[in-house]
Each structure stands twice: as C-alpha cells, then as structure tokens.
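Final report, Chapter 2: Outcomes

The project's central promise was a pipeline that accepts a single protein chain and returns its three-dimensional structure in a standardized token representation, suitable for archiving and comparison. That pipeline is now operational. To close this chapter, we reproduce one record exactly as it appears in the project archive, with the input sequence first and the structure output second.
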Amino acid sequence: MPSRRSEPTRLEGFSDAVFALSATLLVVSLEVPANFTELVNNLVGFGAFAISFAALILIWSIHNAFFRRYGLQDSVTVALNACLLFVVLYYVFPLKFLASGFMSNVLGIGRHLPGPSLQSLDELRVIFILYSAGFTLLFTIVTLLYRHALARAEQLQLNAAESSEALLLFRHYAIFSLTGVLSILVALAGLGISWGFPGIVYALLGPLCWVHADWHNRKYQA
C-alpha cells in the first residue's frame, strides 16, 4: 500500500517520545557497574531487557504501520492513540517482570542474581492477569484504530485491496485481543498456573492468525 504521509506528524512525534520513555523505563533499574562482577551480572540480566525491548519495538512497528497507512489525525484517532500510549507506559512493567522471570526460572539464566520473586502461585496468577490485561488493552485499541480507518474508507479513498487489507488487520488484531482475554480467563480460573498455562495460551496466536489470513484471502480473492 502506498504511504499517505511523507513526513511524521506531531502526533507521531509525541508517540515516538512516549515509546522512547517506555524503553527507558525498561532499563531504569540498571546502573553503571562499579566492578567486574557487577558488569557480568548486568550483562547476564540483559537478556530480559532484550526480550522486553523486542516486544516494545513490535508494538511500535504496529503503531507506525497504522499511521504510515492512513495518516489519520482526527479526534477519534488522537483519543485512541492517547489511550494506547498510556497503556504502553503501564505494560512495560509486567512485561519486564515476566521477561526476567522467564530468563531465570525457565531458561535458568541469571538465577543467582537478585530479581523478581514471587511468594506464591497466587502472586504468579495476578502477574499473568496484569500482563494479559495490558496486552488485551493494547490490541483492543489497535483493533479500534483499524475499525475507525475502515469507517473512514471513503474519506481515505481506499481502493478494494486497501479496504480488504484494513479488514484483515482489524480481525487480525482482534484475535490478539481475544487471546489476551482467554489468558486472563485461564489465570482467573487458576488453571495450570505452576505450568504457565496463561502464558502458553499465547502460542495459539500463530495458528489462529494463519487460519484467519488463509480464510480471508480465499474469501476476498475468490
């Protein structure tokens, strides 16, 4: 799809500043090492930051792609964008906590280092709920942004292929949102918390999105 905007807008500039702040929050706890041991410990703990940073970049790329496609700046877009940025600032905290736990408890990397600790399975359940709440809100807002673009299809002068793509992406991100809801429900029910079932639920995203894309392409290219 051709870009509808050649220069970033003030809305996008502000959004990029918030994403930059979110990236800063991911490393705010890191300090300049005072000795070799601290340096090694920081490097070992850098894996959790890498995972969190990759997730943040993915969210930024989704946000950037929307504005490159449509360049909307109306009041609805501004409101939805503000909500998305607010959620991003919240989301980085449970994201980093789970990434650190995954590195130490699942991969066994940096297990000896001080880091996030949980006293019970109930605390782990709450962490899963907090993470999935942020995930669900993020992609619900992205879904609403694409729904809004579809509603403005005539104003944006979207052709048939572009409208089909917008519909595909609207449903695509709705799948993300619903998967987050499913994770919350699994956590609330206390199913397989010790095995990380609320997190494993996200493995469904790949098959679900592939099935949806295949169905969409067969339906709209027929």
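Archive annotation: The chain has eight helices and no strands.
This record, like all others produced under the grant, will remain available to the consortium after the project formally closes.
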